[in-house]
Amino acid sequence: MRKCSGSNEKGLTLVEVLAALVILGILFVGIMTIFPQMTLFNDKTEAKLDTMNLARQEMAKISDGSLWKREYDSSLGELPEFLSEIRIENEMANLNYLVNASDLGTSDYRRFYNNSGGDYLYIADIYTICEPFQNPNPATPPPSSTSCAEADKIKLYKAHLQVMIETQPGSGTYRVSSETYSYIPYKETDIN
Q1: What is the pTM of this model?
Q2: 22, 53, 84, 183: most buried, per Cβ within 10 A?
Q3: Domain map of the chain by residue range?
């Protein structure tokens, strides 16, 4: 019989197996801590998308051109005019937006609140100063109907909407979740 003088061991020792298990365990724990964070991130992203859609829908209601029309009769001496604060308050009240006496806005805009959206609070700032038409091509003159002169048929007023969400249910403390901007087209028509 022949004896093998060299040792020919195949396989892993117990120490090598334990070291591999420790390394795999550390990697597994690291990977597993990512999943709850991903779920939290997905929930926040979903809430943000929801409020972005709510902001777009609400701004579409506010900037609906059919609300912001005025007819006047020039034969009776009536003249075109800018959008009045009374008109803004009335139209916003029709959309369930109210003025908060402690936060009226500034001389540039009126601030309105609407909390009929369940978990959300909407804050709308309607600017009382007509915005002139911003023409992206200075070579062509802007249409006269949107230049912001008193006699213009269409005048643009900036609107800013914030969708607020409660930080904790029932706390009464809100944070901005989404916001959007648009313009209110105030259109006047001479019925004469």
Answers
A1: 0.72
A2: 183
A3: 41-190
